[in-house]
Write a structure and sequence with these properties.
globular; EC 2.4.1.21; starch synthase; 30% helix; transferase; Rossmann fold; alpha-1,4-glucan glucosyltransferase (ADP-glucose donor) activity; single chain; alpha/beta; glycosyltransferase
């Protein structure tokens, strides 16, 4: 049987970003999957904090050159790649880059700790850019695993604007929810920024709660399964998991890679080959 394909989309990953829940989880997960006969591709933003020389990033010319429309403006998408340092493995990580959104020397906040005013635009750009890049790969993923609020639009886009795209017809979407209050990062005009391909702000109603952006809530609405990525969540985020109408896996730490693999196969209705 051919290898199952797993697309990991993440806003953070060691060693490229600071070691937090998301970064450490993805760093452990990706090699584990590859060692267990899964075909893996990892996509993340190319923040200005990432040292290209140290991590040996280089542009993938055949994938670059697309323009992504956000809020009626065109933004060029540049794709770069690096090999994840791991003994005995050769795994490539793809970085989505744009000078307007990702060249700054901070990730989601400025030097005073204030969220960037264009975080909504950055999120829409990244999520649409991921989908368009995978289309260029011509690589149909069996599992699409999204990590963090900056990936939260991918389930929505795939089930709406890209619902007729055959490449994703059989993909199962997993969303990992971490302890991050996404609404603290995103302005209330988020639905207008995230509307693409003839979608309207009304279509994004699941991403709003009591007049504020609720990116985790929207992602869970359109995902096929959810993983609780942080041990402790806010009361609101716990309520989202409790109300979820899809399978939920509660796993963190060193148990997460193996449990996630089993979870994938349960979604694909196959037995894990140990």
């Amino acid at each position: 049987m051919s290898k199952r394909k797993v697309l990991i989309v993440t806003q953070e990953m060691e060693p490229y970003t600071v070691a937090k829940d998301i970064a450490t989880t993805v760093r452990a997960l990706a090699p584990h999957l590859q060692k267990n006969q899964m075909e893996i591709r990892v996509l993340m933003p190319r923040y200005g904090t990432i040292n290209e020389r140290r991590h040996r990033l280089h542009e993938v010319v055949r994938l670059s050159g697309m323009n992504i429309i956000v809020d009626d403006n065109d933004f060029p998408l540049i794709i770069k790649v690096a090999s994840l340092p791991d003994k005995g493995l050769r795994m490539q990580v793809y970085f989505l880059d744009n000078e307007d959104f990702f060249k700054r020397k901070f990730v989601h906040h400025d030097k005073e700790g204030k969220p960037f005013a264009d975080n909504a635009d950055r999120t829409a750009f990244f999520c649409k850019g991921v989908i368009e890049t995978v289309k260029k790969f011509g690589w149909p993923p069996d599992i699409i695993h999204c990590h963090g609020w900056m990936t939260s639009l991918i389930p929505f886009y795939l089930r709406t604007a890209y619902s007729t795209e055959p490449l994703f017809a059989d993909s199962k979407i997993v969303y990992s929810l971490y302890q991050s209050e996404a609404e603290e990062h995103i302005a209330t005009d988020f639905p207008n920024k995230a509307s693409i391909n003839a979608l309207s702000a009304e279509d994004l109603a699941p991403y709003m709660h009591e007049g504020k952006p609720d990116l985790h809530g929207g992602a869970i609405k359109f995902a096929d399964a959810v993983i609780k990525g942080s041990t402790e969540l806010s009361a609101h985020n716990e309520s989202l998991l409790a109300a979820a109408e899809v399978p939920v896996l509660d796993v963190q730490g060193e148990d997460a890679p193996a449990a996630s693999l089993d979870f994938y196969f349960s979604l694909l209705e196959e037995e894990v080959v140990k």
